[in-house]
Design goal:
Elements lengths: L10 H14 L14 E5 L11 H19 L3 E5 L1 E2 L3 H14 L4 H4 L1 H15 L2 H8 L10 E2 L3 H16 L3 E11 L4 E3 L4 E16 L7 E6 L10 E4 L13 E3 L6 E6 L11 E4 L5 H9 L26 H14 L3 E14 L7 E10 L2 H12 L4 E3 L3 H10 L4 E2 L1 E2 L9 E3 L5 E3 L10 E2 L3 E2 L1 H5 L2 H4 L8 H6 L4 E5 L3 H16 L6 E5 L2 E3 L15 H8 L1 H10 L7 E3 L1 H23 L17 H22 L3 H30 L2 H22 L4 H6 L1
Parallel strand pairs: 1-2, 3-4, 9-11, 15-23, 22-23, 24-25
Antiparallel strand pairs: 5-6, 5-14, 7-8, 7-13, 9-12, 10-11, 14-16, 17-21, 18-19, 18-20
Helix pairs in contact: 2-17, 10-11, 10-15, 16-17, 17-18, 17-20, 18-20, 18-21, 19-20, 19-21, 20-21
Length: 690
């Protein structure tokens, strides 16, 4: 009998029903394929636990689900491990904001109560992103969902820290870090946004010791850091200044003597061609200072007010100090001029305030031994990066890697497993040492530390669990190219160091999503694209299909919501094609195709085109060109199958003999079934219902 179908696919009714049916039947579990099936594993990049679905999440969820469904359809034991990240700074900020609204603060309620409140916050808001990923059709094994602060992953973090410390690869010491005065913590480079801003360039005279009135003209964008200068540097070949090398300069207003040094880092063409060197407050100056054994003088408190090293400016805010110091220098005849100047300003991604390079005692990982293994894994072909051009970027970063600052001055996160004794002893372990007088480390680990263990910690490591033994190493790590350094490289380093295996064989990098004009998506521009609104309007399948077919690996996607509408029409076109074919079925249909000699010319033509399409799609999947594969399927269905073969078949269906009708029906069903299978990873809901 013919099957009656609604005119259009009712996505709002069908999607939740189908998803529940999939999950209820265990189709998302690798065990659905039996114990001998070849595994195919993806670890989901864990979104922030308190986050909400944005268009970037929609992209990674679509791409990874497409890979997983394709592997599952090819008989593999496909496992997509979901999870969320505790997101140290982001989550702590949210809870602090809530406490301020209540008229209190984390300092007032104390650490223990603050952590209780944060766990409550996580329980209240932590499920939002997971529910939204389900709406995207994400076919994860939700019974294996992990959280970076759950017991198993915390155990892995402790194991890694202790082992690295015992191997001499973790140490504590003073170093220049990105310091966020508002957040009161060190922050990673990823949490610092560097943008060009309009500022000022201050030119002044650096007086030289002696009675000849000599001075070196210097320019700076941060006059307050003059108080921490420990040298004036000039290029060794600069004729203007080379005769001053070796003399002594006097720090303005403090009259502290500092040397004039020669260093090739100085660009004679910039500013005056002479540099003030402040090793405790500038990363480049820190390197210069290390080469010349210069002292490091920190003039800032943790809240960016001036400390006792600033002399008479102690207690002033950094910007108040800038104005007061410049006014005093002007009165002393030391200033030359002030110019408008465009320069790059580092701001905290979370708080928005200007980040200060600050000398601070932190915990570090000596990362170079781990980086060498990670470089070799890619060079030898054990790990492939798609697209290949990012391999050079990966090499450059790992070849020039600096020790990794892993401590954060936060309360929410993995507390560093260290205790300090009354006589300066340091104990590293899972539990506090016996005896009195031991105080625990207050800092927590960088969020990226636990994330770096994600592919193996989520499967049970350091225990040799069944999941770890069967599903590690994983297969593909799919993520944005912007975190190739901060996350992917660290996963490779940690995976190789602790398991002796690459954590995955392929890194697939997607680009960033921009608006239809190619502009970065931001609230300021008012061009945000809410994936949930698009799903409400068009359904999940059109959004998924648009995201995949709008880009190629590693390249940014200019997303036009009009394309989602086009995909919506394509979904319904396929639905109507299916409806037409079903409505023309009568009784039982013999499975498979008629024999070759029974086929007429139109049938042979469409089957040859289908064969070529299947071969092309399979080839494109092998080289990760998913977008082009989707476009080829759409072209075949919209431009060949529907307007040509379906139209031609109507003659046989309406006017042909029973034999001709049967032949046409069997070919139509075969081609449609093949197309729906090809389309399923892209648009799973409609193809399941059809």
């Amino acid at each position: 009998m013919s099957k009656q179908m609604p005119k259009n696919f009712d996505f709002s009714e069908a999607e939740p029903r189908i998803y529940e049916w999939w999950e209820k039947n265990g189709w998302f579990k690798p065990e659905a394929q039996g114990p001998d099936a070849e595994p195919f594993v993806i670890s989901m990049p864990p979104p922030n636990v308190t986050g909400a679905l944005h268009i970037g999440h929609a992209l990674f969820a679509t791409l990874e689900d497409l890979m997983i469904r394709h592997a599952r359809m090819n008989g593999k034991a496909a496992l997509w491990v979901p999870g969320t990240d505790h997101a140290g700074i982001a989550t702590q900020l949210q809870v602090e904001k809530m406490l301020r609204a209540e008229g209190t603060s984390r300092q007032e309620i104390g650490r223990e109560e603050f952590l209780n409140r944060t766990w409550q916050w996580k329980e209240q808001y932590g499920g939002t992103i997971i529910r939204q990923l389900r709406r995207m059709g994400a076919s994860c094994d939700w019974d294996r969902e992990r959280f970076t602060l759950d017991e198993g992953l915390s155990n892995a973090v402790l194991e890694v820290f202790i082992r690295l410390y015992e191997q001499g690869l973790i140490y504590r010491g003073p170093r220049l870090v990105n310091w966020s005065p508002g957040l009161q913590t060190a922050v990673s480079d990823l949490e610092v946004e560097r943008k060009e801003e309009q500022g000022k360039l201050y030119y002044f005279r650096y007086p030289l010791e002696g009675d000849d009135g000599a001075y070196i003209p210097v320019a700076t964008t941060r006059p307050e850091t003059i108080l921490g200068d420990t040298a004036v540097a000039v290029h060794p070949d600069d004729e203007r200044y080379k005769h001053y090398i070796g003399r002594t300069a006097l720090v303005p207003m403090l009259n502290r003597p500092i040397p004039v040094i020669a260093d090739e880092y100085v660009d004679p063409e910039f500013g005056t061609g002479a540099l003030k060197i402040t090793p405790a407050h500038d990363f480049n100056d820190y390197e210069v200072g290390a080469r010349h054994n210069l002292p490091l003088i920190n003039v800032l408190n943790l809240d960016a007010t001036m400390n006792e090293e600033a002399g008479p400016y102690k207690g002033l805010d950094r910007y108040e100090c800038r104005e007061k110091l410049w006014a005093d220098m002007e009165a002393a005849g030391l200033t030359i001029k002030v110019e408008e100047h465009t320069h790059v300003v580092p701001r905290s991604q979370r708080g928005g305030e200007v980040v200060e390079p600050m000398l601070s005692t932190q915990w570090f990982v000596k990362i170079k031994p781990l980086a060498e293994k990670a470089l070799e894994a890619v060079r030898s072909g054990q790990i492939k990066i798609v697209p290949e051009r990012f391999t050079k970027v990966y090499y450059h970063w790992l070849e020039n890697i600096e020790d990794w600052c892993i401590s954060r001055q936060l309360w929410w996160g993995h507390r560093i497993p260290v205790w300090y004794g009354p006589n300066g002893e340091i104990h590293v372990g899972r539990e506090a040492p016996e005896g009195d007088g031991w105080t625990p480390e207050q800092d927590v680990l960088d969020t990226w530390f636990s994330s770096a263990l994600w592919p193996f910690s989520t499967l049970g490591w350091p225990e040799e669990t069944e999941d770890y033994l069967r599903f590690y190493p994983t297969d593909v790590m799919e993520t944005g190219h912007d975190i190739l350094f901060f996350w992917v490289a660290r996963m490779i380093m940690m995976g190789l160091w602790f398991t002796d295996k690459p954590p995955f064989h392929t890194v697939y990098l997607h680009g960033l999503i921009r608006d239809k004009h190619g502009r970065k998506i931001s609230k300021t521009l008012g061009n945000t694209i809410d994936p949930l609104e698009l799903i409400e309007q068009y359904g999940t399948d059109p959004l998924r299909f648009t995201l995949v077919t709008s880009g190629t690996p590693g390249n940014d996607i200019n997303l036009d919501p009009a394309k989602v509408e086009h995909s919506f029409h394509f979904v319904n076109k396929v639905w109507q094609m299916t409806n037409f074919i079903h409505s023309n079925l009568d009784g039982e249909l013999e499975p498979g195709l008629p024999s070759q000699n029974e086929l007429d010319m139109p049938s042979r033509w469409i089957l040859s085109r289908l064969t070529r399409l299947i071969e092309t799609v399979n080839r494109l999947f092998e080289i990760y060109q998913y977008g082009e594969a989707g476009n080829r399927i759409e072209q075949f269905m919209w431009d060949e199958f529907a307007p040509w073969y379906i139209e031609i078949s109507k003659h046989a269906l309406y006017n042909g003999t029973e034999e001709e009708k049967d032949r046409a029906r069997r070919v139509l069903v075969y081609v449609l079934d093949s197309c729906l299978r090809l389309l399923h990873p892209f648009m799973p809901f409609m193809t399941e219902e059809a």
